[in-house]
Amino acid sequence: MAAETSPKRVVQPEISEAEDGRMILNIGPQHPSTHGVLRVLAKVAGETIEEAECDIGYLHRGVEKLIETKRYYQGMTYTDRTDYTAAPANNLGYILAVEKLLGIENEIPDRAHYLRMIVMELARIYGHLIWIGTHALDMGAMSMFLYAFREREKISGLFEEGCGARLTTNFFRVGGVGRHDDPPGWLEHVQEFAETFTVEEFDTLLTDNELYKSRTKGVGIISTEDAISIGLTGPSLRGSGVEWDLRRHRPYARYNEIDYKIPVFTEGDVYARYMVRLNELYQSRSMIAQCVERARDLRGEPANANLADVVWPEIERVSGWQPDKRSGDMEAMINHFKLVIEGYKPPAGDAYFGVESPKGELGFYFVSDGSGIPYRCHIRSPSFVNLSSLKQLVEGGLMADLVACIGSIDIVLGEVDR
Amino acid sequence: MLKGALKPLLSNQQLIEQIESIVGSKLDSTAEYLGDVTIMIRPDSLCEVLQSLRDDKSLQFEMLVSITAVHWPDRKDEFELVYHLRSIVNNLFVVIKTQTGLGEAIPTTAHLFKTADWQEREVFDMFGIRFDGHPNLKRILLPEGYPWFPLRKGFPIEGPDFPIDAYQTDAAGLVQPDDFWKDST
Questions:
Q1: Cβ(A81)–Cβ(A90) below 8 Å
Q2: Is A64's CB within 8 Å of B151's CB?
Q3: pLDDT the model gives residue A308
Q4: Are residues B37 and B85 in the same domain?
Q5: How confident is the model at residue A34, as a pLDDT?
Q6: Of A43, A333, B134, B184, whose CB is crowded by the most CB atoms within 10 A?
Q7: What is the residue range of B82's domain?
């Protein structure tokens, strides 16, 4: 732990003068249209941004370091707090990486996969609704925010009904979905949501809105080559004309067994990224309906893997645990105790797993040294990498377009800073 | 429009053979673990290998997904750098690992992949690994002037060794001595 000296930071006032006489405008970190604690320093000439620098880290909590001090099953709670606009997506990335490390991917029952996909697609709608509401609000379309948050509230309610939490869901468990498998009536409520959720409302409000189009078409263009080189993923990549979606091209769960299209737009501007997300809302809605149907057909099947050394004690079948006979079965108690105190121990080695979160490729990289605590956990967060494209998006553009560009790459500062 | 292949165009065995035929002399070892191909290289051939894998027509590893490091304090070369590369056109994935000692520098890949700019800064921020030739190597998540590299294994998260004064910075970001717990009188 060597101490190192480096130049000290000087706090900039709101407006200052650069050495070459140009004006530097400070935006954030407390600014409503930076979507969190993002600070942007823009060197401007008139209304044109000549250079832009991001200053991030205001929300850094050391999630990776914290996960490296907890057992595998404890670390998942931190992932809720990275991308808090779509917490189940982080949960899924985390558990799929741990399952890969444990080598139990093929043991997970179908029913667990479909329940995970339902929640994952609800999270995608949840994340995109926050995005569409706040981004449209930035562009001056105030009513979008109200409609988006009205729908989002319904999904919060579904999360609460499914797992007890509205925001930090912690929905899944390694090996299945834990106790959160389908409370009575939950699937029916999800289906009701999928039937009544009206994407068309957002579509008609914004897609042909002349004001919105004039603010977003041809703004913040990023080419296909640059998008790949910058490492853009998710809707931002698909808005730049690359058909790449981990759900389709590197399928996990049961995404290869249901029907959906991958919206791709080639313009690479803010409007194209909007169109990708809007069309993803339609797709997610239909995916939820399909998954609910499959999950209903599998009702009564187990929702957790039959692995006594991983899945703890939430399954009666594995541990002999009965809700009304808590202290009855000594074997079950021992099993429970060992799993809680020691945790499961993946063999020494490393594994990377990426899932398609609403923001892009969310990857978890684990290194195990054979103990119950991860030796190293790296979160490849899509927001962090996508935000690094901001410099390229805004330089040479107008000051007013900065807000459109920040909104269009859909960042969550909790995930950027981790 | 660029389309990703629906299935990997090469099996893992073919991928290893193809990589060996392109950069065989640079490889220390290759391995397959949990379905991913891992190759070990020496740090001085890092840029050459990454560029060859990116430009080769049958591989086209155009996207550098992530750069990270692992700290092994007991090893001679303490840091292991891990690069995850993805080919969209061929739907391939490869892990590249290299090792470096404390105080040694790694060649930057920022001229090959734009994403390396921020990701290498993050590795520097958390581990203190220097990247030779990086255009703007400074802290990214932690404040300038923060004297520790927290993802190294020696950095405690609690207890008497925890450097509480690390949080005591003034408005200019200067680290101040720890007077938080002391009596103010």
A1: no
A2: yes
A3: 66
A4: yes
A5: 73
A6: B134
A7: 12-153
